[in-house]
Structures are given as C-alpha cells and as structure tokens.
C-alpha cells in the first residue's frame, strides 16, 4: 500500500508542475506529441501566444497551425445533439452521390455517449448491384467543402479509388458553428462487421474480445476474424490465416461464443 500511495503521490507531484501543465497545453494542439511539447518547453515557450509568435522558428506545420487556430473549439466536447445534426447533414449529402451508400457514426456516439471528442464516420456500400463506393469518399469531401460543412483538410487519401481510405478534417455546422474534428473511414462492404466492432469500442471491450479470439485460436482486427492461424510454441503468429467472418458483428460474436451486446453495452466482456 505504501508503494502504491508513494507512486500516486509522485504522479500527483509531477502533474502539479508548470512544465507538466504547459506541455499538456501544447499537446492539445492537433499533431503535437509529447516529445514536441517538451521540446518547445525547453526552448522557453510557455503559452499558445508564444507558439504563434515563434511559429517560424519552431517550424510549425500546416496541420499544427490549423490546430492552434481552432484550439479552444477543438478542446471542447461535442454535444450529442450537435454531432447528430452534423452526421445527418453529411449522410444526406452522401445520398445525393449514391442512394445505396451506407454511413455509420462510430466511437463513443454509437455507445450512447452524451458528448463526443470528434465525429467518426464509417462509409461503405453494398456491391451486390455491381457497383462499389470507389471514388465516392473524395466526391463527398468536395461536396462537404462546397456546402461549408468541411473547412480544413488534415489528411486526404492518396488513392482516390481504393475501397479502404481514411479522411481526416475539421468542419462545423455552417455558417458559424464551432470547429469540430470530422473523420471519415471508407471500408469494403465485406469488412463491415469487424469494422463496426473495432470502431465502436470501447478500448477495454476491444482488447477483451481480441484476447478471447486469441485464446480460441483466432485473430481479430478491424478487417475480420481470422482462422487457420499457425503459431509457434510461444503462441506467436507464424501465418496470418484467412478471414472466416467479417460481414456482420453478430456472426463474429457467435463464432466467439459471445452473447450479443448492443453498442451501449460494450464496456468489457
């Protein structure tokens, strides 16, 4: 108990320093990690105003400059109602591109949270009619910019026709809503079930279900549940195996013997 209490006291003392508070402030800027934050501290920067004044000297990147500009808005949690409105508008615009496109809002929102850190969207399309969502994410990005829902791109897919892409950006409810982080992940239709599990979370649930899959001789990631895996005597994977389930969440739950859980019930196994 004394060791635990001593460790907690040391952590509290470490967090009660100017260096810790300043570095935490800097790390709140998009694309600024702990290493860069401490580097700025050692250079004598202490405030966001210092970062702005010395942006040329510290070689502030484009994305960091965007994160600095919208710092206050991006630090705020997004009310569920606002996230719903943004998602509904994005979904409405996506349907004008292709009426069979499917979008889900993911993360803590899908788990029923009243506030979210950002808006994570999953995009896919049933290819049973011979068409896929190839190229549709980039069309959607352009349309969202035209309508004022997106204001800044942080990461744009290089391959515009791949079925697996990730877009990261900043947007708002036009004309003058608060700036919010908006990410859109495009995935193949046949990976939908595994992706829904993975990007719904929470982290503890994901770790638990992946561990269960491992114990049962499988491997689970955002692309699917893999079987036929060969491991060495230390249980390290020698082969990746083959996907045996991925289209729906339920089929993965069933194979692993996990009773169905609604997204808001996914805390731990």
Automatic annotation (TrEMBL):
Belongs to the DNA polymerase type-X family. It catalyses: DNA(n) + a 2'-deoxyribonucleoside 5'-triphosphate = DNA(n+1) + diphosphate. GO terms for biological process: double-strand break repair via nonhomologous end joining. It comes from Dacryopinax primogenitus (strain DJM 731). GO terms for cellular component: nucleus. Keywords: DNA damage, DNA repair, DNA replication, DNA synthesis, DNA-directed DNA polymerase, Metal-binding, Nucleotidyltransferase, Nucleus, Transferase. This is DNA polymerase. Its EC number is 2.7.7.7.
């Amino acid at each position: 108990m004394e060791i635990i209490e001593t460790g907690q006291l040391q952590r509290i003392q470490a967090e009660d320093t100017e260096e810790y508070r300043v570095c935490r402030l800097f790390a709140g800027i998009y694309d600024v990690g702990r290493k860069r934050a401490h580097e700025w501290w050692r250079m004598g920067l202490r405030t966001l105003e210092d970062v702005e004044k010395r942006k040329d000297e510290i070689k502030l990147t484009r994305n960091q400059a965007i994160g600095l500009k919208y710092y206050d808005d991006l630090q705020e949690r997004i009310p569920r109602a606002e996230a719903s409105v943004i998602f509904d508008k994005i979904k409405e615009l996506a349907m004008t591109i292709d009426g069979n496109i499917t979008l889900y809002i993911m993360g803590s929102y899908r788990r029923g949270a009243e506030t979210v850190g950002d808006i994570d969207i999953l995009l896919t399309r049933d290819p049973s009619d011979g068409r896929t969502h190839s190229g549709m994410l980039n069309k959607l990005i352009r349309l969202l910019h035209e309508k004022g829902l997106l204001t800044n791109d942080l990461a744009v897919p290089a391959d515009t026709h791949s079925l697996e892409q990730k877009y990261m950006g900043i947007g708002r409810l036009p004309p003058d809503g608060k700036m919010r982080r908006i990410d859109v992940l495009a995935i193949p239709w046949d990976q939908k079930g595994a992706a829904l599990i993975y990007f719904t979370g929470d982290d503890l649930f994901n770790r638990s279900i992946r561990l269960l899959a491992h114990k049962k001789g499988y491997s689970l990631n955002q692309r699917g549940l893999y079987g036929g895996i060969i491991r060495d005597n230390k249980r390290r994977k020698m082969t990746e195996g083959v996907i045996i389930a991925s289209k729906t969440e339920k089929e993965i739950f069933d194979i692993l013997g996990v009773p169905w859980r609604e997204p808001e019930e996914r805390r731990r196994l």
